[in-house]
Design brief:
mainly beta, Immunoglobulin-like, 10-stranded mixed β-sheet, 5-stranded antiparallel β-sheet, 2 helices
């Protein structure tokens, strides 16, 4: 009887350790919380997998860059933003700069309201052509609803429009559909987490009109975000933003001292690229000998610009007509993959 009870207890503990989690307000960051993310290129479409008690294994991905992010309190932002979002926002997070049709947006933020029921974006703000401009949403963009459980499904519609004196006009419409389509274990190059997986499908349209050039533009920017959330981590432990089947895997990581781009052997010591950087002819070789390998070179957006069989001999490629920037050299066979970076000037 004692043995049966002990076995049952062990089975219960094992089951509970694998049971799905629930994400609440307490699992989302607060002012002064920061995070470091690494970026990697997918080598398959397993990020689309979903379901109960699923394991997503991304442990073999190789990072090529890092970025820090975090949350600020409203006391840390410009006075104009404090007044514009008084009583409606309690968090701010930096956004990427934008330059479109001669309109420059720098030092920009998303402004959030974190409550017991949800995390929502209530507006944005940035220096537009040098002047701080708040953009309050007429309807909020709801990022997460709490408590979050497997099987949850919801949607929200957000909108803002803003006339800019002597500059022009900007507007955004966004429809977001959130589905918690999986739970289980995610394995990243950094760690292993019990998680919920949120699939967020976004239909976004941005409009810009510039007075000085009498030029307007309306841009659809539809994309899907795959987000893995774990208890007590403050930020997603991993996410991927996919548009037109292109995107990167981003995951929480420690600091990585990346190799200088002038080094001809990067990310993997078996691959040699010379000269690197280059603006004309590049020679690529590998110390790993195999008769059944392929080489692909992709640009920073994930587009394949070169593909061929690779038999181990030195390969000569003319990159003269390629655009300047960073490219990734990928040599793979059925069992393993090598990666390196190529800079084209």
């Amino acid at each position: 009887m004692k043995t049966t009870f002990t076995l049952s207890l062990l089975l219960l503990i094992s089951f509970l350790s694998l049971a799905q989690i629930t994400i609440t307000k307490s699992d989302i960051g607060s002012p002064d919380d920061t995070v470091r993310y690494s970026y990697a290129i997918f080598n398959n479409n397993s990020y689309q997998d979903s379901g109960a008690n699923h394991t997503w294994d991304f442990s073999n991905l190789v990072a090529f860059k890092q970025k820090t992010s975090g949350y600020y309190g409203m006391s840390d932002v410009n006075l104009i933003y404090k007044l514009a979002f008084w009583g409606s926002a309690n968090l701010a997070s930096p956004r990427d700069d934008i330059n479109m049709l001669g309109m420059s947006v720098t030092e920009s933020y998303s402004f959030y309201d974190k409550s017991n029921s949800d995390l929502r974006i209530v507006g944005a703000g940035g220096n537009i052509n040098g002047a701080p401009v708040p953009l309050a949403y007429d309807d909020d963009d709801i990022i997460y609803r709490f408590p979050m459980d497997y099987g949850d499904l919801d949607s929200s519609d957000s909108h803002y429009s803003q006339s800019l004196a002597s500059v022009g006009y900007i507007e955004q419409d966004l429809h977001r559909v959130n589905e918690v389509d999986g739970w289980g274990t995610i394995i990243t190059p950094h760690d292993t987490y019990q998680c919920l997986r949120l699939k967020s499908t976004v239909y976004q349209s941005d409009s810009v009109y510039i007075t000085s050039s009498d030029l307007g533009l309306r841009l659809p920017q539809n994309y899907t975000e795959y987000i893995w959330l774990a208890k007590g981590m403050d930020f997603p432990v991993a996410y991927a933003k996919i548009s037109l089947n292109i995107g990167f895997f981003t995951y929480i990581d420690d600091y990585i001292p990346f190799t200088s781009i002038d080094d001809s052997k990067q990310m993997n010591s078996n691959i040699s690229i010379s000269p690197n950087p280059s603006s004309d002819i590049v020679k690529i070789s590998s110390s790993e000998n195999s008769s059944n390998r392929n080489i692909s070179i992709v640009d920073i957006s994930g587009k394949v610009v070169y593909s061929n069989s690779f038999l181990g001999e030195e390969l000569t490629i003319n990159v003269k007509k390629w655009g300047s920037g960073m490219y990734f050299v990928i040599i793979r066979d059925d069992k393993e993959e090598e990666r390196s970076k190529l800079i084209v000037r």
